[in-house]
């Protein structure tokens, strides 16, 4: 199977600012394939000057874009969606080459990205305000929804198509204009999506994108943080960076949406359907090789079903096919970079040193390449281990036995993070009792695949604030203007 593009023009290697592709730069950023280290493309390594030019364009375009009728904005988004769907195979190939995930999964991500564009095309025409019953005669009181202004979107590498679409689509639907920076490890998917947005007819300046290396990302983003015309920051990434953005946004009191780190628990109660629970864990844990923010990081299995569950799970894990995206039967690709693999190795070594038992996996697959890691199953894990305290962000399942519901809920909540949680049970009373007790923004009940364009995605505690997707995702790009008209009596 080849990852060659049917339409090579879809892969872009330039900033897009004020309706123009700009490639002049003092240095470039290499984009490499994590499967073999080969060079995929070179993009500009942006500077603060590029970020300011993008903000200038977005600010100028906002005055007219906000006045475009919602139906026309929706039509632009629908054309964009149609182009993304039409080019899904090539977009998937671009994504696989720069990020490493298997092609079938990459194409599925492209369609997931398209689902947000389609959803917010429809939501654009439903941004209704309120007529408030006046408490005294002779008044009319209204609550109007208006776009916040210029939005800066900073996206991660693990879902480089879906996350950029999940931020850009609601911003454009609300009437905002956008400056965005894709992840340094995987910028090509975002550039391709922006190229298709331009083809769909968004006016110059409405959507702008600046690429930058890890070294220069602070310079680019700080330019937007310092700019009072940029009224909102939307960021997906680490909690440490999210805290920095929140602190810096305070200087200009920007609206902020942060989707940050997670440490998701996955609980299997004694009355669970074990086959369903294993399937749910496989779906939620091994998507993108475990490199997802909602990936289960701590798995708690009731002692009475532990052995039966582990037997089923081991068989499923050992059947996974690991390989490069160009290999048609691959289910797990390479990790994104050497730092990611080193962290996985450190977590596994720490767990084993502290008493965990290795059931399967636990090594690099050097025969495939330096960034491939075997799907791994550990048992007898506990809260002292690094894998229980930090996101492993890789294909490692660490299982802990439990016997008491209250105890396992306390363990699940014993973290500074609160993005997602999962549990399996057939007890209807327990479903609502545990759902209420879990301190997370997302709960999967007898379900491992929770993400949807119709659902509000986001966390609590140090997993951030704000929501993406759903009607609440559109509201995050709007503010409320209260209007009180008197003298009508």
From TrEMBL:
CDD domains: ALDH_F5_SSADH_GabD
Stretches assigned to the Aldehyde dehydrogenase domain: 21-483
Keywords recorded for this protein, A-Z: Oxidoreductase
InterPro entries: Ald_DH/histidinol_DH, Ald_DH_C, Ald_DH_CS_GLU, Ald_DH_N, Aldehyde_DH_dom, Aldehyde_DH_Superfamily
Record Pfam families: Aldedh (PF00171)
Listed EC numbers: 1.2.1.16
GO biological process: gamma-aminobutyric acid catabolic process
GO molecular function: succinate-semialdehyde dehydrogenase (NAD+) activity
Active site location: 259
Keyword field contains Signal: no
PROSITE patterns membership: ALDEHYDE_DEHYDR_GLU (PS00687)
Domain of life according to the entry: Bacteria
Family classification: Belongs to the aldehyde dehydrogenase family.
Protein name: Succinate-semialdehyde dehydrogenase (NADP(+))
Protein species of origin: Parazoarcus communis
